[in-house]
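Section handout 9: paired folding examples.
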Amino acid sequence: MVLTDLDATYRPDLRRDVFVKEEYHFLNVSGIGTFTVYDNFDCTFECLGNPSCLSLNLAASKGADGTLWCELLTSSKYINPDEYKENKTSHHFSLKGRFRPKSCVEYGQQGAYKDGVYKIYDNSGNTFPAYCDLRSEPGIAWTLVMSWSRENRGISSFKRAPFQINAAENENSSKWDRYRLSLKRMRSLQAHSTHWRATCSYPTHGIDFRDYLRGNFKDFNIIDFLGSATCKRVEYINIRGYNGTNLTAPFWQILNSFTLHIDSRYSRYTKCEFNAASTGAVLSEDNFGYYGSFNTNFRCTQGTQSTTQWWFGALV
């Protein structure tokens, strides 16, 4: 038998199969509202009838008037684990199966604020772990899709495999020095993202917008793009401190030859608006990928353990 939310609404005896009850616990987050009920079925009924409800707090004992206070929540203990506490006055109920996030964006929309590895669902309903950056750019949540160190720049997944090629590396471990999601997972995340970005040594520097690149899929679909010295519009770009906003920059991505990247020295020979050739570029300097030639003044390639990241994201 498949139990749906509708079944549970009209068959209260089955709600125990929909909710997980944790006695004498409380989730301390902002709620949808607090009201009085006569029993736990009334409280769970209200939660099932509200699409935003992911869990609830319910008084452990009735008051003098014979009622219980019930608080509906838009978050869960999985999203805000630091706010999940033991207490002596309430029980906590969390829904089974309602929250199935397809990207880190949905965690941000539910109030998650802690960076780290979260469970994501792909479009087929399968789960996988992914690193979420929920704090570096307020209002935007980012899911990591690829990260590698300069030391590992020669591996095909990071040197010669465009985004449209399935070239997964440690996709269940989120290793900063050697990590790439499968094409299937990237496609799933793309469907729930509006933007992409590239960062340099994120675990060390975080986000200060130096050696940083951001664009949106509407202007530039980085997964399906193939080309050489092709001018593509970006929202923001910074290479070695030289930056630009809402302009075109030259990109390369060729099957069996180049992963997506910019050649800042060659940019002087293109008709693109961004040109970082005269700001300390070295011969054939590659930025944000490929790294056939690299500059130690660029954060992604300063040292052997310096890393490059690519992310997909959207507004929360």
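Moving on to protein 2 of 2.
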Amino acid sequence: MVNAIKGLYISCDVPMAQFIINMNAALPQSQKFIIQVLDNTHLFVRSDVAGMIRSAIAEFREANTYEKPA
């Protein structure tokens, strides 16, 4: 019998994939969440980290949003 790995398939652009890969690389080995990097724009990650990834992306976008000076 084959053990099924539960995960989440992520499809994104290259910069966002690199952001997620760098997030994963910054964690200790026991907390790494990427199961497989499929190619430059597709990742397979542990399903329990979806919220953490979304939060980190939201924070990144908020920090890097241009606001026109008043």
